[in-house]
Amino acid sequence: MSEEVCVTITREENFRFSVDFGPGMAAMIADEPVPIGEGAGPSPEQMLAAAVANCLSASLVFALRKFKEDPGKLTATAMCKTGRNEQNRLRVIGIEVAIELGAEPQSSSQLERALAQFENFCTVSQSVKSGIPYSVTVKGADGRILK
Q1: Cis peptide before 133 (omega within 30 of 0)
Q2: Which of 13, 53, 54, 101 counts the most CB atoms within 10 A of its CB?
Q3: How many domains would you assign to the chain?
Q4: Are 27 and 21 spatial neighbours (Cβ–Cβ below 8 Å)?
């Protein structure tokens, strides 16, 4: 089974972009932090961290619900770490996610089983962890492929 998700990014000015998720979903603004951008929205690193934390949280809820358990109000915090590679280019070098359950752990008889498997349900974190192949095409305003 293969599915596609399409997101359209449109430059508004400087490093501020409109992010369009498609029909029926609110668009958002993304921006680089000061001094490069104006910090008018989340940076690409923040969006990546949010995607990983959101997917892991949803996967934990899914795993617990398989056992008819409820995690209560769940909170996840993701820390995206950047560093320089051998060419002195900034790269994401790690993402740390801390998930806090709203329900007391002893209230879940199946918590241990859910914790052992929930990461395997997370599409985003497992893909990021193994590395995601990508391709890029650059077109000129006239439609000509430049790269």
Answers
A1: no
A2: 53
A3: 2
A4: yes
Q: Where are the beta strands (DSSP E) in 1-147?
A: 8-13, 16-20, 28-30, 75-84, 90-100
One-letter identity of residue 139: K
- Residue 83 maps to which CATH number? 3.30.300.20
Tell me: the pLDDT tens digits for 21-63?
999 999 999 999 999 999 999 999 999 999 999 999 999 999 9
Ramachandran quadrant class, 96 (left: phi over 0; alpha: psi -120 to 50; beta: rest): beta
Give the per-residue pLDDT at 107. Answer: 63
Q: Are strands 8-13 and 28-30 parallel, antiparallel or unpaired?
A: unpaired
Contacts for 132 with CB less than 8 Å, ≥ 6 apart: none
Question: What is the value of pTM for the model shown?
Answer: 0.88
Domain range spanning residue 18?
Answer: 1-42
